[in-house]
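User: Could you go from structure to sequence for me? I need the amino acid at each position, not a summary. Structure tokens:
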């Protein structure tokens, strides 16, 4: 399972990239706004920190403007994945960009039919929003499972299922259990994944016993 970090905060990305667990980054207009940075500058900086796919989302809603913006973003660095919303114009843009060899992440996916359209449009990634479905009482992980199962029936589909809108570590566990290719998570969720009280307790006990030996390894 690939881990992407869902943020435009460069300090967080730099810190977590050092763990060796970060395979890519996703951003969206809200995350860019929260960063207070200009999109072209912050995406270029993120791309220079993380060699994997870095999603940068267009802001236009019509095909011509989306295509222009997508090409501008793709031209920043070779590891930019252009993000487009799951709309008719977004999928038309996805097809045009992917035909040109540009990786596209189709976002704001909330149904299996939408995911089938994204795959037919040549998306490199489709981003079903798990947390936002859970927020309204629908099961976001069930959608991930359904998309994974449907894609498995069509080997020519090259689209990876990127579980997004992750709220807590259990979403990662559940997305992995149903075969999501990627999960994009807030920095805090990756840090939470390491935590277990029995690990802390066990390590403390090992270190206390080791101290009693008076030994050193080097
Ligand atoms: O990548 C999409 C993600 O940022 C959306 O998450 O928490 O706004 O639903 P959230």
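Assistant: Here is the amino acid at each position, in order:
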């Amino acid at each position: 399972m690939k881990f992407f970090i869902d943020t435009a905060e460069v300090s967080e990305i730099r810190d977590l990239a050092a763990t060796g667990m970060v395979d890519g980054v996703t951003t969206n207009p809200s995350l860019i706004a929260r960063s207070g940075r200009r999109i072209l500058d912050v995406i270029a900086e993120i791309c220079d920190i993380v060699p994997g796919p870095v999603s940068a989302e267009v802001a236009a809603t019509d095909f011509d403007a989306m295509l222009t913006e997508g090409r501008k973003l793709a031209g920043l660095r070779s590891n930019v994945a252009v993000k487009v919303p799951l709309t008719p114009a977004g999928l038309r843009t996805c097809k045009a960009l992917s035909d040109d060899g540009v990786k596209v992440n189709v976002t704001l996916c909330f149904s299996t039919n939408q995911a089938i359209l994204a795959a037919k449009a040549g998306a490199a990634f489709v981003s079903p929003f798990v947390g936002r479905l859970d927020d309204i009482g629908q099961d976001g992980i069930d959608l991930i499972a359904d998309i994974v199962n449907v894609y498995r029936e069509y080997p020519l589909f090259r689209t990876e299922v990127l579980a997004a809108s992750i709220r807590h570590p259990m979403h990662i566990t559940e997305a992995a259990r149903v075969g999501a290719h990627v999960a994009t998570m807030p920095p805090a969720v990756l840090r939470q994944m390491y935590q277990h009280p029995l690990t802390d307790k066990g390590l403390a006990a090992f270190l206390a016993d080791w101290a009693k030996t008076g030994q050193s390894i080097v």
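One structural detail worth keeping in mind: The two ends are 36 Å apart (CA to CA).
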